[in-house]
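Researcher: Let's run the pair from yesterday's discussion. Sequence first, then tokens, for each.
Model: Starting with the first of the pair.
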Amino acid sequence: MRGGAILETVLGLIVLIAAGAFFIYAQGQVDDGSGADGYKLTARFSSVGDLTRGADVRVAGVPVGTVTAVRLDQETYFAEAELELSGDIEIPTDSTAKIATAGLLGGSFVEIEPGGDMDVLAAGGEISYTQGAVDMFDLIGQAVMNRGSSQSEGSGS
């Protein structure tokens, strides 16, 4: 009986060591977007939908950064998103940022459409041209209402 207890203790220690090693490995793989080579930009939107901290920032569908904060500007009542981009990505000053959704049920992210300007935004700069989140239920409702009103106009003579 004594040998069984020692075996269980040793196996327990091995499991704890393996779990600790996995935890340390996983912590090293997490990229919170706060790397030393990154820089921050801001963008103001009329609506951010369900955009949250940690969402992707993408250019041409490729992740190039993360959303580090979303807050309300109490003077203008616009939502301000703080974006942290990889240091090797240069964004032209006339670029557009828009809130996009990954599929019908997917999460929101910021899509940057690069402009053609030769000047690039510096760290701490603001993307001036933005497009807020589109509410899919509003679009569907408008389509149904427009379809219903055009049918009722055409049927009466």
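Model: Moving on to the second of the pair.
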Amino acid sequence: MGSFSIWHWLIVLLIIALVFGTKKLRNMGSDLGGAVKGFKEGMRDANEPTDPQPTQRVTQQGDTIDVQAKEKTGSQQ
């Protein structure tokens, strides 16, 4: 009752191939690979730093003005 031999696994794979068909299994494998690739790209994008200086949009008389907000460094007196 220990682990299965190679013959057990070959029979299981043969039954799966007969039930699902090789084309469907091939498509499922490529879909799974695409999902893993998308997940890796999403994780890489999440680790990239965001823009440290956010831009604000201020509207004045129907015109759009782009500005950058900056923090003051040091004291001015």
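Researcher: Give me one sentence on the second I can quote.
Model: The beta strands are 55-60, 63-68.
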